[in-house]
């Protein structure tokens, strides 16, 4: 599935810089730098101060940035009651909407609503959440986001145990004949990326590494691609 602006699929993992790590006073410049660096997607971390102890932004930010690029917007909803946000974010221009399994008691219904709204349907798993909670919705999924930190903040230490789910999900995908992408979020850098890619990661979400790179955002994206290519 290639939403508008999606590049043709290829074997190399997609890079999705997390704008949470951008200079919030120059948010549009941060997004533009990612696009110019060739980022495949842009990752938006939506936090409600309830599901996670931090508060960020809502659909209006997505709407404000949408006219400035056709790069797919990869929206990660770290919110309670995510169903209430599907329509507003889809309408604002999200390309994918990822809800947390832990916040979604009626996950299949939520995923169906996301697809009906025209977005790629994703589920994020907290580090302690078993991947087999997805076994009976595998066909409803376009994306699974493996959290390798506890969600809520950028710049945290990578949790290797949680990364073990990438290989589990690849097996689940094979067993079920599903076609979801496997994305990894939290502590992704040039050291952790190769193992993730070897295990089957299709998308690398990275905030601190990309925005904190000594050679700027373009250096960060390039370094992540190089690390992934050497996997
Ligand atoms: C954490 C967010 C991440 C965060 C990643 O709750 O979901 O997307 O921005 O930041 P880094 O790459 O710094 O771990
Ligand atoms: Zn995220």
From TrEMBL:
Cofactor note: Binds 1 divalent metal cation per subunit.
Keyword Metal-binding: yes
UniProt KW keywords: Carbohydrate metabolism, Cobalt, Isomerase, Manganese, Metal-binding, Zinc
Class in the EC hierarchy, top level: isomerase
One GO-annotated biological process of the protein: pentose catabolic process
Binding site for substrate: 18, 76, 152-155, 185-187, 207-208
Enzymatic reactions: D-ribulose 5-phosphate = D-xylulose 5-phosphate
Pathway(s) of this molecule: Carbohydrate degradation
GO CC annotation: cytoplasm
Domain of life: Bacteria
InterPro entries per record: Aldolase_TIM (IPR013785), Ribul_P_3_epim (IPR026019), Ribul_P_3_epim-like (IPR000056), RibuloseP-bd_barrel (IPR011060)
Cofactor: Fe(2+); Co(2+); Mn(2+); Zn(2+)
UniProt key word Manganese: yes
Family recorded in the similarity comment: Belongs to the ribulose-phosphate 3-epimerase family.
Annotated function: Catalyzes the reversible epimerization of D-ribulose 5-phosphate to D-xylulose 5-phosphate.
UniProt name for this protein: Ribulose-phosphate 3-epimerase
Native source species: uncultured Armatimonadetes bacterium
Taxonomy of the source species: Bacteria, Bacillati, Armatimonadota, environmental samples
